[in-house]
Write a structure and sequence with these properties.
Oligomer: single chain
Number of helices: 11
Order of helices and strands: EEHHHHEEHHHHHHH
Shape: elongated
Number of domains: 1
CATH architecture: Up-down Bundle
CATH superfamily: Rhomboid-like
Helix content: 55-70%
Length: 304
């Protein structure tokens, strides 16, 4: 006499395996290899995948992506600065890194890379050569200058500060908002250098953006109700250095500081119900103001 066929349910993915466990979402039978522990019972692989697709990604207190905790934007910015420094050293030789005379020989000399990308108002490289600078249409200098450095000490100090401040702010704001903060603060400092520095004087360095990060960290901590006792003295020390050491761009540092503070306030205090719109509009207004200031300065230098 033959045995009656088994009536036990089988796993929907493995028909040869009997099981009495079912997915709590779709009620399909699942074997131990297909079980995914859930808050209640177990779920099948398809329901787990569907749940991940419909789950909203984690956001920071300021609306940014949680991906910022990995620090990808900070690492990318540091990488760009290092690559540009290597390019400058490749064309300028050893003196591009150190030995040019500033700070006891610790500051490097300028190179064709820095001359082409530093903030320069309106001047000629030679007595009879053509005019160069932002007023001559070389507007890219307002952006490229924040990625240029005069020597190894210059870039090392700036990249150390960017590593410390950048990772914290990127985790708090998210990579997109942090990158916008960095770039707008850097441009703001370069615009200030363009406005208040002699038109034949070159300035460059990531410090315009980094000073913006200093004040941004204070603004973010205040918004979150965190301590700022360690940040304020650090900012004060950097301001003292700015005013004490010759040839540092006071206008650039203060401009980056002010711009970074304003952008950080926009990002941190935007109302939650329309946060992204207010943040984008606020940053846009800051950019427009910087453009208008640049145009007015250019008209002044050209005598229009």
């Amino acid at each position: 006499m033959s045995e009656a066929p088994s009536t036990a349910p089988v796993c929907y993915r493995h028909p040869g395996r009997e099981t009495y466990i079912r997915c709590t979402r779709c009620d399909r039978p699942i074997c131990p290899d297909c079980m995914n522990e859930a808050s209640v019972g177990h779920q099948c692989p398809e329901c787990v995948a569907q749940g991940k697709r419909t789950q909203r990604p984690a956001r920071t207190a300021f609306g940014g992506s949680g991906v910022g905790r990995a620090g990808y934007a900070t690492r990318t910015l540091i990488g760009i600065n290092v690559l540009v420094m290597l390019a400058s050293a490749a064309v300028g030789g050893g003196r591009a890194l150190f030995g040019a005379g500033g700070l006891g020989g610790l500051i490097g000399s300028d190179t064709s890379v820095t001359r082409a990308g530093a903030v320069l108002g309106y001047a000629s490289y030679t007595l009879t050569g053509p005019m160069h600078g932002i007023a001559a249409g070389e507007w890219w200098r307002l952006i490229t200058a924040m990625f240029l450095h005069y020597g190894l000490l210059h870039i090392l100090t700036n990249m150390w500060a960017l590593w410390q401040l950048g990772r914290y702010l990127e985790a708090a704001l998210g990579p997109v908002r942090f990158t916008a903060l960095y770039l707008i603060a850097g441009v703001g400092g370069n615009v200030a250098a363009y406005l208040f520095t002699a038109p034949n004087q070159q300035t460059a360095g990531a410090s315009t953006a980094i000073f913006g990060l200093f004040l941004a960290a204070i603004v973010v901590n205040r918004r979150l109700g965190l301590q700022i006792a360690q940040l304020v003295p650090l900012l004060v020390v950097n301001l003292v250095i700015t005013f004490s050491i010759p040839n540092l761009s006071i206008a650039g540092h203060l401009g980056g500081l002010a711009t970074g503070g304003v952008v950080a306030a926009v990002l941190a205090y935007a109302p939650a119900n329309r946060r992204a719109t207010v943040q984008a509009a606020g940053c846009g207004v800051v950019v427009v103001i910087l453009i208008v200031a640049t145009v007015l300065r250019t008209m002044s230098l050209l005598g229009s």
